[in-house]
Amino acid sequence: MNFGENLKELRKKNELTQLQLSKILDTSKSNISKYEAGSIEPNLSILARVSTYFSVSTDYLLGLSELNQKKNYNFHDFFVSFFFGYWDKCQIRIYERMKELSISKSDLIDETNIDLEKEISLDNLVTIAKKLDISMDYLLGLSDIKYISQEDMNYIQSITERERDVINTFRKLDADNKDIIVGDMKKYIKEQRYESITSNNNIEKTGA
After folding, report:
1. How far apart are CA 77 and CA 79, in angstroms?
2. Closest CA to 122 of 31, 40, 8
3. pLDDT in tens, 62-78
4. What letter would DSSP give residue 39?
5. pLDDT at position 83
6. If 59 and its partner were Cys, which of 26, 65, 139, 162 is the partner (CB 3.0–4.6 Å)?
7. Are 46 and 36 in contact (CB under 8 A)?
8. Mean pLDDT, range 2-25, rounded to an integer
9. What is the pTM of this model?
10. DSSP code at position 149
């Protein structure tokens, strides 16, 4: 799914109207409607606000990854660093990855029509991330994970919708309630194993 579809899904799952979300993101209801319809793309500010509020990765929001992971960064610090010298760090990450793939500046310009020495847009960053097979979160300094292995991706894609709902609900709990839930889950696993062993023993005894 693209950004608009993911935004709409997250909004509805959290039972928010477009007007309510517009106030949360400090934008207009019209813009929320346009984002969801795909008629306009979000700028970096909106992208990070959505990522922060819903606790999901920017890669997930942009449809670059199925991984819906919680973010742990300070929104204010991110924007201060991005608009005051952060781009240099982003360039370094891009050049490091280009070196790993043996891609030169001229190669990148020829294949993407993007010049890293000039101001680039969010769409440009997405294009670069796809071209270099690298995480948008990593490029933006929101994660130390460069990319997801195929093994991890296969596991992520195997997660059912019900399991995703459980994970998203768990993330909304405070630390104490999370500890309670984890404790209960361990108890249920032990009970399940015990029931399985008992059932197997009964089968062996009866031969049924």
Report:
1. 6
2. 40
3. 887 765 554 444 444 44
4. S
5. 41
6. 65
7. no
8. 92
9. 0.48
10. -
